[in-house]
Design brief:
Blueprint: H1 2-35, H2 41-46, E1 65-66, E2 79-81, E3 86-89, E4 94-99, E5 104-105, E6 113-114, E7 118-121, E8 127-134, E9 143-151, E10 154-162, E11 167-175, E12 182-188, E13 193-201, E14 204-210, E15 216-223, E16 231-237, E17 243-254
Antiparallel strand pairs: 1-2, 2-7, 3-4, 4-17, 5-6, 7-16, 8-13, 8-17, 9-10, 9-16, 10-11, 11-12, 13-14, 14-15
Length: about 260
């Protein structure tokens, strides 16, 4: 018993002498943790770690440049041009959120407005490109469009836009560099969507619209040099609203010439 007591007393004395050292080490480690930067969402993403609140496919207040995801039906990388509040890319749909006051228009007597975000790709040769565009919701003239451009001041868009509480419309604009504006179809506000189409063949570009994605109406036909490099894609605009989420689906692309001029097929 005396031996056991002496052993216990020796261990207790040793532990008592080490306590100041242990406390000091713990305090230093705590201070280091407080000073060390914590991993950011970007760092977590780069390391393959989950990001809090992340949604697959969502870029979230993205910076202009090449997007990390592609559409299954487009054999091209996608590039964001301009500032968007958000971008969501899935296999077969794209949502592009335009910020407040964004527009794409070039009047004759005022500076051009080029604040509508775009997601574009770079095709070559003849093609047929179409998409279903969901109806606008609240702001006047908000909407989603398809665009073809050779530069920042040479472009054409076909747009599904909101006019008022009862009427929406399909319009088009061609800028060279001043843009015109033509209305082609007036639709009830209850119309869920329209289909828009851009066709390039030889030295021409044609714009089309459809209420069901099957029967098409040609809207415009204008010249474009065969040698011109083009950017083609999606636009979202919100001239009078706080923002607008343009939703594109049923996205189709074919690298071919058309056979039926009136249908764009």
């Amino acid at each position: 018993m005396h031996t056991a007591f002496r052993s216990f007393a020796w261990k207790a004395a040793l532990l008592s002498s080490m306590m100041p050292l242990l406390v000091s080490a713990a305090s230093q480690a705590h201070a280091v943790r407080q000073l060390s930067p914590q991993p950011t969402s970007a760092a977590n993403s780069a390391m393959g770690m989950p990001v809090s609140g992340a949604v697959p496919g969502r870029i979230g207040t993205p910076s202009p440049g090449i997007l990390p995801k592609r559409l299954r039906t487009l054999p091209f990388a996608l590039t964001l041009v301009g500032r968007a509040d958000d971008v969501l890319v899935s296999e077969d749909s794209l949502t592009l959120v335009a910020p407040k006051g964004s527009d794409l228009f070039a009047p004759a007597d005022a500076p051009p407005k080029d604040s509508a975000p775009r997601v574009t790709f770079t095709p070559q040769g003849d093609f047929i490109f179409s998409a279903r565009v969901a109806r606008p919701e609240n702001g006047k003239y908000e909407g989603g469009a398809l665009i073809i451009a050779t530069s920042t001041d040479r472009w054409a868009k076909v747009l599904f836009e909101r006019l008022n509480d009862t009427t929406h419309a399909v319009s088009s604009s061609v800028a060279a560099p001043v843009s015109d504006n033509a209305y082609h179809m007036r639709l009830p506000a209850s119309a869920a969507a329209v289909w828009l189409k851009i066709v390039r063949v030889g030295g021409s570009v044609m714009l089309y619209a459809s209420e069901d994605g099957s029967r098409w109406q040609i809207l415009r036909d204008f010249p474009l040099s065969r040698s011109a490099t083009v950017e083609v894609g999606f636009v979202s605009q919100s001239p009078d609203g706080d923002h607008y989420a343009a939703r594109f689906s049923d996205i189709r692309y074919e690298a071919k010439s058309l056979k039926d001029y009136w249908q764009g097929t």
